[in-house]
Amino acid sequence: MVSHQSQFSWSASSESRLTAPQLYCYHNEIAPLRVVKHHGPNMGKRFYGCVHWLTCGFFKWADESNEIRDLQLVIMEKNVTIAELEYETDILKAKVTSLKKKLAKRQDMVDELSIEYNERMLQMDAVFANKRMTYALIMSWEGMAVKYLEGWYFGYDMKFEA
């Protein structure tokens, strides 16, 4: 069985970890919560200071940390939003690339169909030209045949000139 004293000390230490806000220093590392140990007016006062004090220089009193923590949370939320938008942008870029490929394929198909259409139209023009010529030839033969028959029927000889 766990003693009452050990439960109390555990809950107090875990509670302090939960309530103490985390601040990030200037080079984006967690700045630990510290206590002033030197004798003087600030002795016992809590502050956040970077582990790399000489290179970073981050320092904030714990009672000033709420504003800073709030601003850091806003920054973190903005960073998440930026990351989400960048992800969506990448997805949209991939879709655009895919659609451009489909468009290029469809354009190739249109070009091929256009060529085939033009070839068929030329073939149809040739067929219709042949039919017109055949019709004209038949009509001219028919006219000559009528004249020949008229001549035979009425008794005069038809001479065809070429």
Average pLDDT reading? 78
Tally of helical runs: 3
Radius of gyration, whole Å: 49 Å
Q: Could you list the spans in which at least 5 consecutive residues all have pLDDT below 50?
A: 1-18
The termini sit apart by 133 Å
Strand order of the largest sheet: 3-4-5
Structure classification: mainly alpha
What does this entry look like structurally?
With 162 residues, the protein is mainly alpha-helical. Helices cover 68% and strands 9% of the residues. It contains three helices and five strands. It has helices spanning 4-19, 53-56, 65-154, and strands at residues 23-24, 30-31, 33-35, 46-49, 59-61. The strands form two sheets. A three-stranded antiparallel sheet has the order 3-4-5, with no helix packed on it. The longest helix is centred in the last third of the chain and has 90 residues, at 65-154. It is rod-shaped and about 150 Å long. The N and C termini lie far apart (133 Å). The model is unreliable at 1-18 (pLDDT under 50).
